[in-house]
Design goal:
Layout: H1 4-17, H2 30-37, H3 41-53, E1 57-60, E2 64-67, E3 88-89, H4 94-102, E4 109-110, H5 123-136, H6 138-141, H7 151-162, E5 173-176, H8 178-190, E6 196-201, H9 205-214, E7 217-224, E8 228-229, H10 231-240, E9 243-248, H11 262-274, E10 278-282, H12 298-301, E11 307-312, E12 324-327, H13 332-343, H14 348-359, H15 362-388, E13 394-395, E14 403-407, H16 414-423, E15 426-427, E16 429-430, E17 443-447, H17 454-468
Parallel strand pairs: 4-15, 6-7, 6-9, 9-10, 10-11
Antiparallel strand pairs: 1-2, 3-7, 5-12, 7-8, 11-12, 13-14, 14-17, 16-17
Helix pairs in contact: 1-3, 2-3, 5-14, 7-14, 8-9, 8-13
Length: 469
């Protein structure tokens, strides 16, 4: 006779397979299921443990049980671990501007720009915080908040960084207008036009834009889709070229979504330290892991190393707030000066509003809620791509964030695909945007932070048809 808990587990597994519980969704509480099915709490606990052992669900501390993201069958394979033959000046990023302009057109299904749909953002909480600032700090919010920025915001950022082991004083934090400006200031602080900067490959195209504007040469280092920058290839590059800085996104990179293991982070910092190279750490997705545990940063693991840490609230609270920051010890004065001459100051009211959201605990509560939504959105998009796209398609397996990196059958030109897709009302990001040398011709990046409806699904069907043709 089959034990009762196995029957309960089998029924729940069937409901998960049929889509009653989406990837990332929280399962009903143990006591609730026990009452509904007329069984003991111990029976339900045993059933949940069996489902966990079989890989259907995962337990999250003090939160409950959640459906695990389904893994498509065909995943992106690691690149061959060799460094690029030579550094290259970054150019040819014109397509990105067309992509950015398309993101403002309501007639276009937005799968290109990595900007969350408002349904994924705490818009009401942000609006209330801004209203309180306008009402209670009217005079202060109307004036300049000179660099390094609002002291209460810098204190809150320092406190959060300390929770991942990063003991950095609030005085070492400079508030910026988003992470893009943070990266720009970091690069300007340690490089000059013509210098060589090592970057991940594929790399976030916004970083490549900044490098193009600064006249820097990109040295592309292959990235493993699950572990990050190939350190053997980086070591080879450092021996051969006069690298001045290295930019990485170790936590849930854009576009691959990998989480670099702590051992690799330490090895990366050690390798750069031996060659006297500054590490610029972009942690903009660090709060959006599918696991409830916030991953470590390179700065936290190696507090005495030459690291400039960049991040922002654009992917979590609201892109329009444009609140970011740079954390760095030895480079702080230079960055603070560059911030002043670039834009004098970042807007005051958004800084004060973000500080209030953090201090009140609303920011943390929001993060606990949204991580499962992003895991579900990425899994659903990956499933749809594998369902509709032609044979030979492969997808990444992100561990956080909300973008999907898709490898299309070899002869597909993603630039041409992007042009045709845009004419058909669908925006995507073609792979060559993520490379200084125009690699990844048959790759695209899709943003998954969209409300799933018939319009979105039909857009994917339409896109799959264009790929097939």
């Amino acid at each position: 006779m089959t034990p009762l808990y196995q029957n309960v587990a089998a029924e729940l597994a069937q409901r998960i397979a049929e889509g009653h519980y989406a990837p990332g969704a929280r399962l009903p509480g143990v006591r609730s299921v026990a009452r509904q099915r007329g069984v003991s709490v111990a029976t339900v606990v045993a059933a949940y443990r069996r489902l966990e052992d079989e890989g259907h669900i995962e337990a999250r501390a003090r939160s409950g049980f959640y459906v695990r993201a389904r893994r498509p069958l065909h995943t992106i394979e690691p690149q061959r671990r060799v460094a690029a033959p030579r550094p290259r000046l970054v150019s040819g990023q014109d397509m990105a501007m067309a992509l950015i302009k398309a993101s403002h057109d309501p007639r276009i299904v937005q799968l290109g720009a990595a900007v969350p749909d408002p349904d994924y953002l705490p818009t009401q909480a942000v609006a209330r915080a801004l209203a309180r600032v306008a009402r209670l700090q009217r005079t202060r919010s109307a004036g300049y908040m000179m660099p390094p920025g609002a002291p209460e915001l810098r204190r809150e950022i320092a406190r959060r960084m300390s929770e991942t082991g990063g003991r950095i004083p609030a005085d070492d934090i400079v508030v910026t207008t988003g992470c893009q400006e943070a990266l720009s200031l970091a690069l300007r602080a340690v490089t000059r036009p013509g210098d060589v900067v090592a970057v991940e490959s594929p790399a976030f195209y916004g970083l490549l834009h900044v490098m193009e504007s600064l006249g820097l040469e990109a040295l592309e280092i292959p990235s493993h889709p699950r572990e990050g920058m190939a350190l053997d290839a980086l070591g080879f590059a450092l021996e051969r070229w006069p690298v001045k800085a290295c930019v990485v996104v170790p936590n849930y990179s854009n576009p691959l979504g990998f989480l670099m293991p702590d051992a690799n982070k330490r090895a990366l910092v050690s390798l750069l330290g031996k060659h006297g190279v500054t590490l610029i750490e972009d942690d903009v997705y660090g709060d959006l892991g599918f696991d409830q545990r916030r991953p470590s940063t390179c700065m936290a693991l190696s507090p005495r190393a030459d690291i400039i840490h960049c991040s922002s609230f654009s992917k979590t609270l609201a892109p329009g707030l444009r609140v970011g920051w740079v954390a760095s010890g030895k480079h702080r004065e230079r960055i603070e000066y560059l911030k002043y001459v670039s834009s004098i100051a970042s807007p005051t009211a958004p800084q004060l509003a973000v500080a209030e959201l953090m201090e009140s605990g609303r920011y943390e509560r929001y993060l606990r809620e949204v991580r499962g939504k992003y895991a579900s959105a990425v899994a659903r998009m990956g499933d749809a791509v594998m369902k509709y796209f032609p044979e030979g398609t492969r997808v990444s397996q992100p561990q956080g964030g909300f973008v999907l990196w898709v490898e299309l059958p070899g002869k597909v030109d993603s630039f041409e695909l992007a042009r045709r897709a845009l004419k058909s009302g669908v925006s995507i990001a073609p792979g060559p945007l993520f490379s200084a040398s125009g690699k990844f011709r048959n790759f695209i990046r899709l943003s998954c932070a969209r409300v799933w409806d018939d319009r979105l699904e039909q857009a994917l069907v339409k896109l799959a048809g264009l790929v097939d043709r």
